[in-house]
Specification:
Two copies of one chain form a homodimer. Chain A has about 500 residues and is an alpha+beta fold. Chain A has four domains: about 70 residues, Barwin-like endoglucanases (Beta Barrel); about 45 residues, Up-down Bundle (Transferase, Pyrimidine Nucleoside Phosphorylase, Chain A, domain 3), CATH 1.20.970.10; about 200 residues, Nucleoside phosphorylase/phosphoribosyltransferase catalytic domain (Pyrimidine Nucleoside Phosphorylase, Chain A, domain 2, 3-Layer(aba) Sandwich); about 100 residues, Pyrimidine nucleoside phosphorylase-like, C-terminal domain (Aldehyde Oxidoreductase, domain 3, Alpha-Beta Complex). Chain A contains 18 helices and 19 strands. In chain A, α12 links the parallel β10 and β11. Chains A, B: GO terms for molecular function: 1,4-alpha-oligoglucan phosphorylase activity; AMP binding; pentosyltransferase activity.
Chain lengths: ~500, ~500
């Protein structure tokens, strides 16, 4: 990609001062100053960076945003004084020293994170210390409440408010596109805020975006949900639990997801929308976040405990995470698959079963079905076309085309069918291999990119039969995805030599 | 203090790109891009920040320094590609998960720190993880070697090269001003790099600066030391162990000083100057870094072990850290006190005894004195005037006035004598209280600011007799220091009511 260079003043926080002034003030790199603009009477604390080369003694470089906040222009004079660090620094240090934080201390840290009184470095220290020393259940509760308190909340007219969340790690997990319309069709309120893929091939927000806009404010989410009973939007446009974004930002380079912070992150988003009934989907498998049933049960207990402390009814669904849900991976492919089920298709089985199972639990919890009958009620809402009808209302209210059909959603024009190298049973679908290949093919940005699994685990295939198909929106990305596929073998047929697939055995088709 | 606002492009690393381009590239906040300028063929990895407001899609904001490095100007086009994170990220994660790092892994982390391949956030995670999970002796050795390898080294003509270091925490510890000239006068080579005060009232570099410039390059340090046998300079101007500055930068807000990192920091600086014989001064006391004799011995063992692995002979002097060394605290006051001892004064006892003890150990280790006779040899180098003569050579070669006398160094003109509120024995000199008052009075920036302890522990005083004197360079700072002194009671006389000292009992004198 080519980009035009443009030198601009950048946003951010902090300031540069000359080393001489720093010594006069007695401050060091990372210390805080309070900058006061006497003309406007406005002041703000800033973290200083010290330089000897960028400016002359007697001057201060302030970022644009700070200047705008204080009403400052070039050449204005400001008063600066040393400022004491916020008390949250002391509480972060306490967590570094393996102390237990009180609710008050956690709230102070989270508030200072959101108010930008803490630098990203300092937030990193907090997250690292929490990751290493752990957060106990009281601290997780405090963190959840603090995240809610420092962000926006939504109140809905319809009750009960129900919600679902999957902790992730399984490709093709498009069940939200089925669960939300089923639940809303049952007359319940389900304001689903969802995420975009970070390391996956398509988050729920990426999928829904194929059908309708997903960027809405909290107020818009409230209005739309109250109108039709449900929405599927991107959580990032609301200001719900903004501290969570900061935590994710500093965890990101290290690919960590501290258990307590993860629970707080999920539960804060549910609590902020007033959810009363919640199901958490915990996929278990070697490539998901939770590797054993035992770990899943322990995690489920914590979710349920935090829910009960916050007055939410929480149940957890421990699900199979070894291979993709359904056959499609990547935005358009997944949306077409979900829509086809809403339209009445009876496959793929794994998608339908998981969707009605999760929806069924919610229906039972909300009293819309007897114990043990939730799944049947969900299935009939699907079969009757009520869920499809509701999904069209949701698409319409979010500004999409309600009359869209699954056959309208077409995958990328460049595709390659991967043949079975030997005859035998499919014994393994490697989640991370499939996601890597789908991402290299362009997903989630290229909505048409992805993978369709022609065979799933246990399928008997003959040599030369297609086991999966890669889709892309350009020949170049398709070629790159193919190279990676040859290296990763994301689908394994029993007895197949784990050797290079000969290049001439792969057919490259151009669809149109 | 008033400063002129000036909006400037700032230095640093990283780049801003628009969210749309970030999604197209598949990168998130904190991910890395490689930016290539085809015209010059130069490229560099950068960490991206994502924005929706600062620029339009298709553009990239690069910091000045990056532009200069690549030869870029406004309006030039660059190629950007996603870049994989450096492998040091993985090793930092390993330390977060309480793994033991190999020498190779530690070197990779330290090299990436110095090369700016790691962001300050990522360095914070490493330092926090090392602080919490600790570094074992092998890791400390690796860290020491890595710090040396990634910085400048100095080789001296004269041998053996000897060095001393105090791990700090005791006010008034000006012994380096005596030890260096004594050792150099004995014909040994002692290239002393020292620090400025961070939380103290005067680091050795702040003191020496009263007499001569202290900012020199490594090459200048080498030349000056080879000429006169010793120097006392600020370590920050050399590029010895630059990784240490980064570690200190991120530790600073939390006032932590991880034991392994502290040992590596000290030993790397000694190893980089080729020190063969080293004494480490470990002050023990309630307000120093080491609180018990047992902790001091354990720390000493680690210093000795790392020294032996690096081929350095190390001994440790565990010293009394409960109250100040000598009577003076603050640059001018301390320098005058040290100079007066070199000129032949026989007090203060604690300063002379500690200086000849440390110098004596070095003389014995270097074979300049028999075991048990080092202190005597040190004392005679002091008494003969040889140390004073050598100190004058050092001052001269660093560009100061060699004929300076202790009486030339005068304290701040604004001073207040604090009277004993009752008659009795002085029972406590509170280190941190004394330092706080000295700093509020202006030390170490205002060279004349500080405290002179007229009475020390065990001194019998009568009510109204001066127990200590505060010096400042302005009435305002003197007043502020007095207020703090009334609150902190840094000197306690037995039987004294820990109540406010009545304001009219304090005499405010203007000296000139």
């Amino acid at each position: 990609m080519q980009l035009l260079v443009q030198r601009v003043d950048i946003a951010g926080r902090g300031a540069f001062i000359h080393e001489e002034d720093a010594r006069r003030l007695g401050v060091f790199d990372g210390d805080r100053l309070r900058v006061l603009y006497p003309e406007t009477g406005k002041s703000t604390p800033i973290v200083v960076d010290i330089t000897t080369s960028l400016l002359t003694p007697g001057t201060i470089s302030l970022y644009n945003v700070t200047c705008t906040d204080l009403g400052l222009g070039d050449g204005d004079m400001v008063e600066v004084h040393t400022a004491i660090p916020p008390s949250s620094i002391r509480f972060i240090r306490k967590k570094m020293d393996n102390g237990r934080l009180t609710a008050e201390e956690v709230l102070t840290i989270v508030r200072d994170m959101v108010n930008e009184a803490l630098s990203l470095n300092e937030i990193t220290a907090f997250v690292t210390a929490s990751y290493i020393n752990g957060l106990d259940i009281d601290e997780v509760e405090s963190l959840t409440r603090a995240m809610v308190e420092t962000g926006e909340k939504i109140e809905f007219a319809g009750h009960p408010v129900v919600d679902k969340h999957s902790i992730g790690g399984v490709p093709g997990n498009k069940i939200t596109l089925l669960v939300v319309p089923i639940i809303a069709a049952a007359g319940l309120t389900i304001p689903k805020t969802s995420s975009r893929a970070i390391t996956g091939a398509g988050g729920t927000a990426d999928l829904m975006e194929v059908l309708a806009p997903v960027n809405f404010t909290a107020e818009e989410v409230q209005m739309m949900t109250d109108r039709v009973g449900g929405v599927i939007v991107w959580g990032g446009s609301t200001n719900i639990a903004p501290a969570d974004d900061l935590i994710i930002r500093v965890e990101y380079p290290f690919k960590i997801d501290e258990r307590g912070q993860m629970i707080a992150s999920v539960m804060a988003k549910k609590f902020a929308v007033g959810a009363e009934i919640v199901v958490i989907d915990i996929p278990v498998g070697p490539t998901t976040k939770v590797h054993t049933m035992q770990d899943a049960r322990r995690l489920a207990q914590d979710f349920i405990e935090i829910g009960s402390r916050l007055g939410m009814q929480v149940e957890c669904a421990v699900t199979y995470g070894d291979s993709p849900v359904g056959r499609a991976i990547g935005p358009n492919l997944e949306v077409a698959e979900a829509l086809s089920v809403l339209e009445g298709a009876e496959t793929p089985n794994s998608l339908i079963e998981k969707s009605v199972a999760v929806a069924g639990i919610l229906l039972e919890m909300a009293g819309k079905a007897q114990r043990g009958e939730g799944e049947e009620v969900a299935r009939s809402l699907l079969a009757s076309g009520a869920a499809l009808e509701k999904f069209r209302e949701i698409i319409a209210i979010q500004g999409g085309k309600p009359d869209v059909r699954s056959s309208d959603i077409i995958p990328g024009a460049y595709q390659a069918e991967i043949p079975a190298p030997v005859s035998g049973y499919v014994v393994s679908l490697n989640n991370s291999g499939l996601v890597t290949v789908a991402r290299i093919a362009g997903a989630p940005h290229d909505k048409g990119a992805g993978i369709y699994c022609n065979a799933k685990i246990g399928t008997q295939v003959r040599k030369g039969e297609t086991i999966y198909t890669i889709y892309a929106e350009s020949q170049e990305l398709l070629n790159r995805a193919l190279e990676e596929a040859r290296r990763l073998y994301p689908v394994v047929v029993e007895g197949m030599l784990l050797d290079r697939i000969p290049q001439d055995s792969i057919e490259l088709d151009r669809m149109d």
